[in-house]
Amino acid sequence: MLMRNECAVCILNQILRATDYMGLDKERSDLVFREALKKTLETDYATLTPPLFSGRIYDAITDLTGNKDPYKKLRKEQNDLVLDNIELFRKKIDDSKDPLFSSLFYSLLGNIIDYGGVEIFDTDQIFIDVGDVDLAVNDYERLKEKLKNADTLLIISDNAGEAVFDMLLMENVKLKYPEIKITYGVRSGPAINDIIKEDAEYIGIDEVAEIIETGSTFAGTMISQSDPDFLEIYNSSDIVVSKGQGNFETLEMETGKDIFFIFKVKCNIVAEHSGLERGSLVLSYRDSIPGPSA
How do residues 144-170 score in pLDDT, each as one tens digit? Predict the structure, then answer.
């Protein structure tokens, strides 16, 4: 999915939120925003995906503050929010009629924990029960059939907090399909509140999956720019699961792989591009997503 003017405005607003979160004074905040605006005007952003463009614009923060990871503390807080309640979620999953589906459901709900979206999330939403919300697209049965015959599964991660739910999902995949090898792809450097390797290890994901860096330092995954080791796993995996809207915005363009997308539609532009209403919750293979409406 390529940039629109509205995406540029959204990402510039993210810069304002970031400078506010960092507690920069007005002079420094104004300098960062002006640099971000300058980068925007100098970039032919219509040729880029929104996550790739955002990565370039976020460089304005590092350039002028020296802070390469402004959301490091926030990621830990978001991971701890779910870790502190992990036994509650494990019980909800274990007590459900279908633990694998329930773990998928909470992995999807975790996608609301986002600091780059149009709206600030409400953490109470992650505590709702399975069945209390409707899914716009639900390809669970199709995924389950594919898992029966799969030897390898690659999950490409998204936000902090959400990653703890991903761990519960991987635990349940291993319980049902113990022979499957799971690899968990993480960003190679800070990108808003997206998970990086040290976060994944802090959570304990290395106990259920092999962790690999994708090569991306922005909130998405561009296969053409991926690390060779990650690319090898991506190409050879029987199933690829993409988490989050940023990964959807980049990976939906990769037509050579049948990818299973898990995300919430968080903005009007993605809603229009996907053919789904804003706010939709999606567990879907690419060919089940309607696409742009006529």
Answer: 999 999 999 999 999 999 999 999 999
DSSP states of 207-234: GTSEEEE-S--SSS--GGGS-HHHHHHH
Residues 145 and 203 in one domain: yes
Residues 102 and 58 placed together within one structural domain of the fold? no
Last residue of a domain, one of 18, 35, 65: 65
Average pLDDT, the chain: 92
Q: Has residue 76 got a pLDDT over 80?
A: yes
Confidence of residue 116 (pLDDT cuts 50, 70, 90): low
- Report d(CA 88, CA 242) in Å as an integer: 25
Domain count along the chain: 2
The tally of CA atoms less than 13 A away on the side-chain side of residue 99 is: 17
Residue 109 inside a domain? The answer is: yes
Q: φ and ψ at 179, to 5 degrees? A: -85, -10
Tens of pLDDT, residues 170-188 = 999 999 999 999 999 999 9
Distance, CA of 113 to CA of 71 (rounded, Å)? 13
Cβ-contact 242, 251 below 8 angstroms: yes
Q: Which residue type is seen at 89? A: F
In terms of DSSP H, where are the helices of the chain?
5-22, 26-42, 50-65, 72-83, 86-94, 99-109, 140-148, 162-176, 197-203, 228-236, 245-251, 268-274
Rounded CA separation 19/9 (Å): 16
- Residue 241 tokens, joined: 């699961």
Q: Do residue 216 and residue 275 come from a single domain?
A: yes
